[in-house]
C-alpha cells in the first residue's frame, strides 16, 4: 500500500486549499478511505470518510460545511477540498486506507493557516 499526499501549503485565514492523495498497491475502487490530521503536540484527529460508492461521506463537526472529500476511482485519487480555512486547521494532513484512518496512511502534507 502506498499513499502519497500533495497540495498542502501556507494559506491565509478564509482561504482554500485542495489536497490530493495518489493511491497504489491495492484495489482503490470500492475501498473506504479517509483523511485525518495531526497538529503539533496533539493526537491524530479524524477529518472525513468516504465510502467506496463515492457518495456516502461523513465529516468531523469541526470541518463540516467547509471541507469536502471526494474520489476519482479511474485515477486512484482521493481529494480533500478545504474552504474557509481557520488557524485551528493547521496540521499535517494524511490520507488513509479505511474509515477513520484505521489502516495505512501516507507521509502527510503540511497545511498552515496564518496571516
Question: How would you characterize this protein structure?
Answer:
The chain is mostly beta strands and 115 residues long. 0% of the residues lie in helices and 48% in strands. The protein is built from no helices and 10 strands. It has strands spanning 2-6, 9-11, 17-24, 33-38, 45-50, 57-59, 67-72, 77-82, 91-97, 109-113. The protein has a 6-stranded mixed beta sheet, with no helix packed on it. Strand 7 and strand 8 form a beta hairpin. It is globular and about 40 Å long. The model has no long low-confidence stretch (mean pLDDT 96).
Task: Give the helix proportion (percent range).
Answer: under 10%
The major beta sheet can be summarized as:
6 strands, mixed
The portion of residues forming beta strands comes to: over 45%
The tally of beta strands, per DSSP, is: 10
Summarize model confidence as the mean pLDDT. Answer: 96
Please state the overall shape, judged from the principal axes of the Cα atoms.
globular
How many separate helices? Answer: 0
Cα gyration radius (Å): 13 Å
Structural class call reads: mainly beta
Amino acid at each position: 500500500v502506498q499513499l502519497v499526499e500533495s497540495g498542502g501549503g501556507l494559506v491565509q485565514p478564509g482561504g482554500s486549499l485542495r489536497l490530493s492523495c495518489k493511491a497504489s498497491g491495492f484495489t482503490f475502487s470500492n475501498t473506504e478511505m479517509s483523511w485525518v490530521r495531526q497538529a503539533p503536540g496533539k493526537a491524530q484527529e479524524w477529518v472525513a470518510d468516504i465510502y467506496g460508492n463515492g457518495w456516502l461521506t461523513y465529516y468531523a463537526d469541526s470541518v463540516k460545511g467547509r471541507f469536502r472529500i471526494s474520489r476519482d476511482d479511474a485515477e486512484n485519487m482521493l481529494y480533500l477540498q478545504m474552504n474557509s480555512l481557520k488557524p485551528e486547521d493547521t496540521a499535517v494532513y494524511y490520507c488513509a486506507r479505511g474509515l477513520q484512518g484505521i489502516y495505512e496512511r501516507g507521509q502527510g502534507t503540511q497545511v498552515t493557516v496564518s496571516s
